[in-house]
Amino acid sequence: MIKINDLFFKPFISEEDLINRVNQMARAINEDYKGKSLVILAVLNGSFMFMSDICKGITLPMEVSFVKLASYSGTQSTGNVRELVGLDTDLEGKDVLIVEDIVDTGKSMSYLLDLVGSSNPASLEIASLFLKPNALKENIRIRYTGFEIPDLFVIGYGLDYKGQGRNLRQLYQKTEF
Question: Is there a domain that residue 63 lies in?
Fold first, then answer.
């Protein structure tokens, strides 16, 4: 068990399981996009570890770009999405893969899909390491999902609580003790 700020967390998904699943996802992407070039659009801050590891496994020609959205306050989604770092890459006619750490309500992803879709990409898909199906409120399709998890608050492997815990090598879930 670990303590981050004022909350306690216990191990949930091991580093080995995370890396194995990310490598499986990269292999599927390589197969699905064979002969194509990709634009990886990573959603900061939480996706940075996942994006780095999945890009190491993708053998296709690719560009990498970043956007930063905010919708959380503490451990809860606010339901409002703010764009903190905007899209700065021309996506028209390109195959775009959004790389996200976690999709819970889907509001941020729905916002981003509308934003990127308005750029007229050739294709637009999502790779999310974690999905909380019981929290999902938007009708979105995620082509590559690493793990479906319960509606728990999790940290580690890029995800944080009040700015802390992103550097943890495995995933932890909030616990009372």
Answer: yes
**Residues 118, 103: Cα–Cα separation, whole Å:** 21
Lowest-pLDDT range of 61-65, 106-110, 162-166: 106-110
Catalytic, 104? Answer yes
> pLDDT of 99-152, one tens digit each?
999 999 898 899 889 989 999 999 999 999 999 999 999 999 999 999 999 999
Long-range Cβ contact pairs of 64-67 (< 8 A, separation 24 or more): 64/39, 64/40, 65/39, 65/40, 65/41, 65/89, 66/41, 66/42, 67/41, 67/42, 67/43, 67/112, 67/115
List the domain range (segments joined by +) for residue 135.
15-70+81-152
The answer on pLDDT for 74 being more than 70 is no
* CB contact at 8 A, 174 and 9: yes
**Domain containing 63 — which CATH number?**
3.40.50.2020
The percentage of the chain sitting over the pLDDT mark of 90, rounded to a whole number, equals 79
Asked whether residue 134 is domain-assigned, the answer is yes
Among 53, 101, 104, 160, which one carries the catalytic annotation?
104
Rounded-to-integer distance, Cα 146 and Cα 167, Å: 19
Residues ≥6 apart with Cβ < 8 Å to 131: 102, 103, 142, 145, 146, 147, 148, 149
